Amino acid sequence: MPALKNIKRLSGASLLILANKQDIKGALSPEEIAKVLNLEAMDKTRHWRIVGCSAYTGEGLIEGFDWYVEGGMGSVSLAIGNAAKEAGAHIITRADVKQLLVEDSGRVNGVLLGDGMPVHSLIVLSNATPYKTFKELTPDDVLPDDFIRAIKNSDYSSAGFEKRKFGHGKPN
After folding, report:
1. 118-120 and 48-52 as β-strands: parallel, antiparallel, unpaired?
2. Which architecture does CATH list for 2-81?
3. Among candidates 43, 41, 40, 17, which has minimal Cα distance to 30?
4. pLDDT tens digits for 110-129?
5. Which residue from 144, 150, 111 is spatially nearest to 127, judged by alpha carbons?
6. pTM for this one?
7. What is the domain partition of the chain in residue ranges?
């Protein structure tokens, strides 16, 4: 673990530890594991979490996967942002985007922020769902109707993990 904590390119990456066998007497608790691994000393840009679980009963697994999907994967954006800043990019965060700025040619050349400030850029990245990006932020009449229909009919209910209910012993 000490080697992983100090690799620069992993700075900002998520770390989820599933502390299995919590249903067995004598298993180390998540807090004890964090202490043994000295996780508090880890780079502060690194998101981490230890979730007590039991693969046998399924307890804790959904909690861990939910953290990874909802909170942990956000650190992927942070890692990309850190790399971009090192390369000289200017990144604006915690600002509402009202609309994409689109040239007559159809090329996106920036965004209009919620406060009315235009921000022009050669490259625009969106961390929003395709629906939000193409249906809500893109001006009307920019995209073809069949593309908009495909966006409207897409299922965005899962971010990567399918939730399952676990019973005693094996998944249902």
Report:
1. unpaired
2. 3-Layer(aba) Sandwich (3.40)
3. 17
4. 999 999 999 999 888 887 88
5. 111
6. 0.48
7. 2-81, 92-152
